[in-house]
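TA notes. Do not distribute before section.
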Amino acid sequence: MTVEKILNDFLDCISKFDRVVIKPSSKNPNRRNVYVGSSKKRWMQIDIRETNINICMDHNHGDLTEEDVLLTGVPNKRSRGKNGFNFKVDSKNFDAVHFTFYENDPFDFGRKEFWDFLDKHYKSYLRLVKFR
C-alpha cells in the first residue's frame, strides 16, 4: 500500500462524518488540516511522509482512554516501520491521539472497531469545540 493510498483511504473514512472540511496547509504542502464546519480549532493534522502518514487527533479532555484506542487494533507503541499510536493527556486544554501508519504495515480503516473509535472521537471533538 502506498502512502497516497493510506492517505486517501483515511480521508475517505473521515469525510463520511458530518461537516468535515479537509484543507491543505498553506505553510506545509505535506500537511492536511481537518476541521468540522467553521471551527477555528482543527480536529486533525495529517502529515505525509515518504513512507508513512502521521495523524494527530484532538479530543475533549477525559472523554477517551488509551483502552479505547487499543480496541482499534493499532499497537500502542509507535516504532519505525510499524503502525502505532501514542496517547497524550493535557488536563488544561485537550487530549490527543497520535497515529502513525506505514505503507509496509497495511491497516483497514473500514474495521468496525476503528469506525466505533472515530465516532466516539468525533463526538468528543464536537464537545471540545462546543459545536452543535
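Switch to the second chain here.
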Amino acid sequence: MKKRTWILVLLVLLGVITFLDRINISVAGESMMRDLHLSEKEWGWIMSIFTLSYGLMQLPMGALGDKRGHRSILSLIVLWWSAFTFFTGMAGGFVSLLVIRFLFGVGEAGASPCSTGVVSRWFPKEEVGKAQGFIWAASRMGGALTPFIVIPIVAVDWRWAFYIMGIVGCLWVVLWYLFYRNDPKQMRGITEEELSEIPQLDVSAVESSRQKSEDAIPWRRMFTSVQFWLLLSMYFFYAFASWFFFTWFPIFMSKGRGFDQSELTYAIAVPFLMSMVGNIFGGYLTDKLTARYGLKVGRKAQGVGALVVSAIFMFLAAFIPGKMEVFIFLSLCFGVIDLMLPSAWALCIDIGKKYAGAVSGAMNTAGNLGGFVCATLFGYLVSSTGDYNLPLYCISGMLVISAVLFMCIDPTKE
C-alpha cells in the first residue's frame, strides 16, 4: 500500500475524532443545559463561542502548518483541543464552559487547513478531490457515530463523554507523530514510483522558512485577489447550513419537532450518514468532471447545483410540518449540500497551490464566522418568537446566495 494511502487513513481517523469532539456537546446539550441551568440564549453563546475562536484561528493555523510543517503543528493542535475536550467535562457553569469551548475552538481550528496542506503536498492533483471527499466524509461519520456513543454515556453522566474523547485524541497524536513526515523523500520505505507521482513542492524551502525574516505567505497578493474574497464569501453563506447541523440540529429535532430520546439517535445519525455519502461521491465526481471538462466545470457545476438543491430541501423542511417530513428533507439537505464540499476544498488547492493551507484556513475562517452568526441568531430568534422553523427559512436564503457566489469563482486563476 502506498504511503499516502496510510496518511489518508490517519487523516480520516482525525476527521472522525474531530467531529466526535465537536458534536458531542450538541448531543449532550439537553442534559448539560438542565444540569448547568443554561437558557436558550446562553446555550446559543456556548455553541457560537467555539465557532468564533475556531473561525478566527483558521488562517493563522493553516499558515503555521504551511511554514513549520504539518507533522509537529498537527500534533500540537490535536493535543491542545483534546485537553480542552477533557476539560469540558469539568465545567461548572456558563462562564467556565464559555471559556473552555473558546479555547477548544482555538485548537480545532488547525485540523481542516492542516489536513488540506498535507493533501496538497502528498497527493497528485487528480486525487485531491477524492482525498478531500474521504476526509470530510470521515468527519460526518464522526457526527453519525456521536449519538450512538454519547447518548448511552449521557444517560449515566454527560461529563464522561468528554473525558473519553480527550484521551482518544491523545492516542491519535502518537500515531501521527511516529509515522508522518513533512517531506515525502524522508518517508521510510517510500518507492521511487510513488515519489514521481507526488507534486514536487519545495518542501525544503517551507521547512527552512522559520529561519528567514520575511514571511513565506504572500499575504498582499492573497488579500487583493478577487477570487480569494469570492471564495471566502461563498463559504460564509454556505456555513449557515452546515453549522445548523453541527450546533442546533439535535435540539431542533427534540424541541422543535418533538423527537423523543429513543428516536433522536437515528434522527441525528441518518442525516450525518447522508452527508458522509455526499462527501465521498462528491470527491469522486469533482475529479471526474474536472478531468473531463476542465477545472471551471468540474468545480463550479457541482458546487452550484448542490447549493441550490439543498436550499430547496431546507425550505421544505421549514415549510412542511411533521416529524417524518422534516427528517427526510433535512437528511436530503445535508447529503446534497456536502456534495459540494470536496469541490470547495479542492478549490483551495487549485488557487492556493503550495499555500493551500493558508487559503483553506482563510476560507474556513469565513465559514465559521457565518456559523457564529447562525448559532447565535438561531438562539435569539427562537427565544423571541418561539418558532423553530423561522431560522430554517433564513438558512435557505443563505444557501442561494452561496450558490450565486460559487458561480463567480474561477478556479483557473491562481
